[in-house]
Amino acid sequence: MEKTKKVQEGETEMFQDIQLKNVRVDDPFWSQRQKLLGSVTVPYQEDILYDRIPGIEKSHAIANLKIAAGLMEGEFYGMVFQDSDIAKWIEGAAFSLALFPDPELEKRIDEVIDLIEQAQLEDGYFDTYFIVKEPGRCFQNLQEGHELYCAGHLIEAAVAYYEVTGKDRLLHIVERMVDCIRAHIGPEEGKIRGVPGHEEIELALMKLYRLTKDEKYEQLASYFVYERGNDPDFFENERKNRGWAVWGGSFTNIDYHQVRMKAASQTRAVGHSVRAMYYYTAMADLAEHRQDQQLADACRRLWENVTSKQMYITGNIGQEAAWEGFTNDYELPNDLIYGETCASIGMVFWARRMLEIQALGSYADVMELELFNGVLSGMQMDGKHFFYVNPLEVNPGVSGVLPEYRHVLPERPEWYACACCPPNVVRLILSIEKYAWGEKEHTIYSHLFLGGEARFDAADLTVHSEFPRKGRIEYLIRPKKESFTFAVRIPGYARNVRISRNGILQKQQAVDGYVYFEGGWAERESVLVEFDMPLQRQYANPLVRADAGCVAFRKGPFIYCAEGADNAEPLQELRIPDAGEYREIPIEDGVLKGITAIQMPCRRAKGEAGFLYTEKKPELVPETLTLIPYFAWGNRGVNQMRVWLHAL
Amino acid sequence: MEKTKKVQEGETEMFQDIQLKNVRVDDPFWSQRQKLLGSVTVPYQEDILYDRIPGIEKSHAIANLKIAAGLMEGEFYGMVFQDSDIAKWIEGAAFSLALFPDPELEKRIDEVIDLIEQAQLEDGYFDTYFIVKEPGRCFQNLQEGHELYCAGHLIEAAVAYYEVTGKDRLLHIVERMVDCIRAHIGPEEGKIRGVPGHEEIELALMKLYRLTKDEKYEQLASYFVYERGNDPDFFENERKNRGWAVWGGSFTNIDYHQVRMKAASQTRAVGHSVRAMYYYTAMADLAEHRQDQQLADACRRLWENVTSKQMYITGNIGQEAAWEGFTNDYELPNDLIYGETCASIGMVFWARRMLEIQALGSYADVMELELFNGVLSGMQMDGKHFFYVNPLEVNPGVSGVLPEYRHVLPERPEWYACACCPPNVVRLILSIEKYAWGEKEHTIYSHLFLGGEARFDAADLTVHSEFPRKGRIEYLIRPKKESFTFAVRIPGYARNVRISRNGILQKQQAVDGYVYFEGGWAERESVLVEFDMPLQRQYANPLVRADAGCVAFRKGPFIYCAEGADNAEPLQELRIPDAGEYREIPIEDGVLKGITAIQMPCRRAKGEAGFLYTEKKPELVPETLTLIPYFAWGNRGVNQMRVWLHAL
């Protein structure tokens, strides 16, 4: 078990994120979703930013930009972080360009960049909320102001746009913007010794650093990560000195912002979950880059806490709506959940960085779980409706209606006034290549199964994948160097794993979730990974009160759920046997076309009106249970849904 | 089955509530509780009203009275309905005097009545909030002002104090007060055609009417009941015309106040549950008094809705904290529940009035269920700590802590700023005789088993009761008239019922929950009712999602629960077999002394740290389950508690 790929101390070569130009996706699952996002969602979100879609809450994001640029009269409208919608759209649109070249779209992105350039102040400052609405109050409210959060997203957009197009105009804008931030914030005398109220800029600065190799970006990222928690009262003191507020001073809890203690001391995930995820992503990134073992240990502790104590079976995190975040270990209510789509996206970011610290299959397993469940459930099949909140149990008349459940919508709405999740889904799925592949220390990693092609320094690969329909992935490898390692992740749910190299069955076992192929590469080699993905019953740790006595279903990367559209309501009447045959039913038409449902015999404890409590145990009648993948729920109108079903 | 005792049309004799002077309680269960309330709680609450208890939220109720009376300088402090604390205390103290004569207490009550008399305005108006804080705004805010609610409680206090002491000073005060109300509110031209925002005065006026036989009180009660819902917009229009508010206009929902439709049209319980209970009590009272079949039908529909769709197994009602009231049928969350003690008390009031419409054992069964569970759980064993909210599941670190659960305290606090429940428990339990007995149409009813003596026109009774420890109640009857009927309720949970008359076993069956003994009374007769009360497993209707897959326990009138004090936590790990032996364990010391616990074998699905979800079904290890009566929970520190346990 010493095969674990650990970073050697002293190694200095900077790892680079996978560049989209080196990968071509041709995947039976993800290609059609990327196509939908590129052809439908990116232009739809563009129309929203320009307020061209009637009947939905206006965005005003482009209008804010025009007003800030002096091209239009008017007032700022929207959230204090409205700019980030534009940044995230640019990033997603850039990734879309990489997959689906579109000169018209590229031109339109350039026009938005024009506006940003014109709106940017002389000193590099850029944030339309403060430029238009609160001039003179810049950087006075790091807690609520979201200037650094928006800056982070603009940096990510610039890095992505440069990566895809080679155009550096937005890059220079963000470089000037970061110089402005550095001029005002930092550990030096006379500067604001603060940290952002919403983490994001840290991970973005690391991307900018990798692209530009300019140490000042790494230093600013490090400052933000290492300073955080140094002064738990910073936000409170800032508030006292300021005398004004964006939201009237809610969310003053230091846990909400993860500032109770320094990064290296953190032991459990607390507060707002998206903030936490972006923070932990940067922590992991820096821990690896700086070889900071204390920081890496903190990342491992936090990972352990989230994934073994505070994560839903679908990968969703954030149990509490009031602060959109974490609560107690094992406290995982399925119906009251927050489970924000962005938090699952943040888990993907974090998992990907954890894989750089150490290639553990369990990190990639969670990353894949999020992508196929917690992230994807955020989007309707039509690419135009989105969930913020992803419940594991929905009850019509209760969810979205009763006060405690008002945030749990039973159907995806068209748009939100606060539109953080939709463009986040776009930018993640359109760059899924960056998460599927890895290259480090002369090792090529296949973290996720993704059909298509990928070029690395050491070799070029072609992948024929039948995943997730079937556990059969064939890698054709054309080595370019003599010595390198090829590592393929074997998922935790894989059963009866067969590994062949050049047609010959191998006895090789996965080590920490990866099978490693080394040395003696012929001109063309093939690695075939095959495994079974039987339907698995899943039981929660009995410490989880919400799932006691219940069972859930998993098949490969998919968690399943039962919906009223396929099963008579109420679903709590269903009783699931411990074992038994099941059938896979490919859905051949309708909105769920292409998805495979699962059917099996079950029982129903049939209720009837007229009484509440009785000495007689409910009689059980035979019934057929129909399950669909969790991500596909809520596409057929308002109905009941449950992931956890009562066991017989 | 035609034996049902229905009221004959045209019958005019007014029924009277049982007078305390005709009953002496000597009961193995209730006597000690009455003693505790009389000796500890009544003086404790008196000290609170006078602000003599250090370290708890001040009441200021007596101070408000002194300020209103011009005997003290100062500002009004407390809730808009703070006066009702005094009224409820007087009522409870009066009932205490009936049981435990105490000239000193009587003198102190008279002193409070002095203050009320001095504070009352010339025109009869009495409400210290408006007299002291908002003069000139009387009767402008029937929605929030609680003047009629407080008036109702003062009327009840006056009726009780007169009943016990024969002193009529408070009675005259409330007569003048009601005259003032009648001068301002009513259907006549020039008066406010409104109804109270919080029902209460209706049922109080009926008590005043029965005592004084003055029709004007019945007419005002009728006006309030029949006018309600006539103009659903009354509160909204009142608010618009007024331009000021007590609470800034929350609770504007017409369902909250039960004003969407007229009484006779109501089909399901909605809104604030205490308001609803007091309303339904008055509806039932009037339906019977006026022989209004439409109103009686509405009462039956509402009763059916509450008891077969919206009531917890402990009798608690009101599922939603936001409006302290009803939500959806079968939506009965055990941990988010409101379940106010006062609402269970209201159920007792309502059930008692339903029994006058028709003597159905099911009404008395619910009345008894409330008394032994939902009501009694509101009070600590020490008589000094109280619950507002009575949960069926408590989880330390969640209950009282996480936002959705903040109202669900895991321990009874000493006092509340809003102190409606504690004095309500006092006045109910100290007058339990009124609920236990009934007399109507030449029939004496034993609705509840209550040891002691009771005198009626037709006969005097002595009751030797071993209930609830044992189902053995002996009635010694000394007839005073030749012809009368004696009816004893046989509870729904009774098994193997044996009925003897003068030592001879009878073949008589209960009809609609009552056994009727008629005619040919000898000078002395005895009726012995015996039945078994085996431990019963209770299953919820599968339409109740919160209880799916769970089982609860009932033994006689008691619902049981498991507490962390007796069982290793977490309690959701426990798995209860379908059947099996059990032991009764009398608790011989400590705070639960005198209570009988129940033990039986069960299993535990043992959780352990390190993972969240697994393919392996949790192993079950043998364990002993210990249950205690629900009312006794929360007396041994903060710990987990569950009524519903997972079935094996």
Give a concise summary.
2 copies of one chain form a homodimer. By secondary structure, chain A is of the alpha+beta class. Helix content of chain A is 33%, strand content 17%.
> Could you name the CATH class of the largest domain in chain A?
Mainly Alpha
Taking strands numbered 1, 2, ... along the chain, how are they ordered across the largest sheet of chain A?
1-5-6-7-12-9-10
Give the mean pLDDT of chain A: 95
Give the total of domains of chain A. Answer: 3
Overall structural class of chain A, as computed from helix and strand content, comes to alpha+beta
The description of the largest β-sheet of chain A is: 7 strands, antiparallel
Strand content of chain A: 15-25%
Low-confidence stretches of chain A: 1-12
**Counted beta strands of chain A:** 22
Which fold name corresponds to the CATH topology of the largest domain in chain A? Glycosyltransferase
Radius of gyration of chain A: 25 Å
Quaternary class: homodimer
From the coordinates shown, what is the CATH architecture of the largest domain in chain A? Answer: Alpha/alpha barrel
